[in-house]
Amino acid sequence: MTKFLLAVHVIAAIVAVGPVTVAASMFPPAARRAFGAPGDADALATTRLLHRICRVYAVVGVAVPVFGFATASNMGVLGDTWLIVSIVLTALAAGVLALLVLPRQSAVLETAEGDGAVVEEAPGERATAARAATVRLAMVTGIFNLLWATVTVLMIIRPGSTTGA
Fold first, then answer.
1. Which pLDDT tens digit goes with each residue over 93-143?
2. End-to-end C-alpha distance for the chain, whole angstroms
3. Where are the domains of the chain?
């Protein structure tokens, strides 16, 4: 049963976290293109699609820790330091995604669509504010990605593990 749970955990991580990581990373440059060409429907559609991918796969990503806990419980490693650190980093990554990345993507998208408060500023100020928003979004997205990369390394290396890995 442990092998099955581990397989589902790894597959869920690849299928759910991978798309969020890529789409979240692609969002800031896509948003800058949408701001740079306000009449370009394709640029705006791309930005909307990337945000939708992030939202949908963030929900699907809940399966990763669920099956991770089940696997760890079956393996009897819930108290291992490497796993506790991974759990904390996973919670931080989820928090960064839910509290920083997704809301900022929504705000940037609203602004790009013309519904945000930034639109009422002069065009030069709007471009500056939009650029600053996408730069901040890229920064928090990078933090999210770094947290997930660290969790991945911890899951592979498992420091202090006695399983021979």
1. 999 999 999 999 999 999 888 754 444 555 567 678 888 999 999 999 999
2. 20
3. 2-157
| Cβ-contact 69, 124 below 8 angstroms | no
The Cα 120–Cα 2 span in angstroms is 57
Judge whether 107 and 137 are in contact, CB under 8 Å.
Answer: no
Tokens of 30: 């896509």
DSSP 80: -
> How many other C-beta atoms lie within 10 A of the C-beta of residue 127?
15
Tell me the C-alpha distance between 38 and 156, whole Å. 44
**C-alpha to C-alpha distance for 60 and 17, rounded to whole angstroms:** 9
Q: What is the mean pLDDT of the chain?
A: 90
Tokens of 113: 């669509």
What's the rounded Cα separation, in Å, for the pair 42 and 56? 21
